[in-house]
Amino acid sequence: MFANVNFLSQFAAGYNYSDIDDSKRKVSSLLSPAYLTEAIGIEYKPVPYFFIDFAPGALRQTIVTDTDLYVNTPDQKNYGVPIGKKIRTEAALMQIVANFDKDIAKNVNLKFRYLMYANIKHPTNIDDRLDAMITAKINKFINVNLGVILVYDQDQSNTVQFAQGLGFGFLYSIK
């Protein structure tokens, strides 16, 4: 059995850039959107590096504090929050979260987290999110990582949203 609370948001504004006139439109910002999910359920952990959470009891609040943002959001859906409101609460028919975290080669680690959320009112409109990151330790001072995020949520957009990042890290310890 498990119980958890999860909060997702971003810290900086997000923009949609136009190829036509080089303009940009603000589509997101801090707490616009944000997602607060509370879940209880059963966890299955067959091996130390992988587990799946099944949560038939989950609630999710979608928060959009910037009420002027809706005209710029993907497909003008305001992330599923009714226009003029700041919060929308959904109950889940089922939430499934799968986590994988394993060294797949010497000095190379793969992590992913897949989240599936099926709303009670519209169980066929399944929200999907995949976060994946591969990290390689180049030497004792330098790490490099490549991360991707894929999101499909019909309350946000009718298309898959994709983000990627490449990071380099330098670490020096003074003992």
Write the layout of secondary structure elements.
Elements: E1 2-8, E2 14-17, E3 24-28, E4 34-47, E5 50-63, E6 87-105, E7 108-119, E8 127-137, E9 142-152, E10 161-170
Antiparallel strand pairs: 1-4, 2-3, 4-5, 5-6, 6-7, 7-8, 8-9, 9-10
Q: How would you describe this protein?
A:
The structure is a single chain. The chain has 175 residues and is mainly beta. The protein has a single domain, classed as Porin (Beta Barrel). The protein contains no helices and ten strands. An eight-stranded antiparallel β-sheet has the order 1-4-5-6-7-8-9-10, with no helix packed on it. It is globular.
End-to-end separation in angstroms reads 41 Å
Radius of gyration from the CA trace?
19 Å
CATH class categorisation: Mainly Beta
Spatial shape: globular
CATH topology: Porin
Largest sheet: 8 strands, antiparallel
Could you say how many structural domains there are in total? 1
Unreliable runs, pLDDT <50, ≥5 residues?
none
- What is the number of helices? 0
Q: Quick one: how many beta strands?
A: 10
Walk across the major sheet and give the strand order: 1-4-5-6-7-8-9-10
From N to C, what is the helix and strand string?
EEEEEEEEEE
Q: Taking all residues together, what is the mean pLDDT? A: 92
* Relative helix content: under 10%
What amount of the residues lies in strands? over 45%
CATH architecture verdict = Beta Barrel
Q: What structural class do the secondary elements suggest?
A: mainly beta
